[in-house]
Amino acid sequence: MRDMDRTTATYGTAGETPPTRRDQAARYALLPLRLFLGITFVYAGIDKLTDSTFLAATGPGSLGELMNAVRGTAAVPGLVDLALNDPVAFGYAIALGELAVGLGTLAGLLARVAALGGALISLSLWLTVSWQTEPYYYGNDLVYLMAWLPLVLAGASYWSLDALLRARRRRTV
User: Membrane-crossing residues (predicted)?
Assistant: First the structure.
């Protein structure tokens, strides 16, 4: 293969230069965020699923007790009331949701959907559990919500199952 052909096949048009380090860094810029959020949400889900105290309807450290404590200060008390209808089922739903979001984010499978799920979990926690935090930037749920947004917008373009599936579809077309 001639040099010009190799360049064209690899980088697009003849004479186009290979990506610079800055270009490469930009391509992978969201990867550390994806890894952090994915690992954190997997850990949070497993932590909740293995904590019988958290998954109890009542008692110290239970989700039911936490929801009763934040009921009066939540921005959306209706969300708290929803959790209080069945704290154990709600606890399992949150834990399994965090686990699914974390695994989807790490694998890069339906990455935008997983990130949207993470953003919605973070939003619901911010509007209920950490809403009363003063000043607002001390509450971590708002930071997590903002951290999910770039992944909602961009997805997982590198080192992801989504990228592999896109490449496979391109080859079959």
Answer: 28-46, 89-106, 113-131, 143-161
Q: What is the average per-residue pLDDT within 79-106?
A: 97
Residue 122 in domain = yes
Q: Are 157 and 76 in contact (CB under 8 A)?
A: no
Does residue 91 form part of some domain?
yes
* Residue 62 DSSP class: -
Convert the pLDDT of each residue in 63-85 to its tens digit: 999 999 999 999 999 999 999 99
DSSP-assigned letter for residue 45: H
What pLDDT, on a 0 to 100 scale, did the predictor assign at position 13? 62
Count up the domains in the chain and report the number: 1
Residue with tokens 């109890």: 56
Stretch (H or E) spanning 134: none
Is 78 a member of any domain?
yes
Place of tokens 């239970």: 62
- Give the global pTM: 0.86
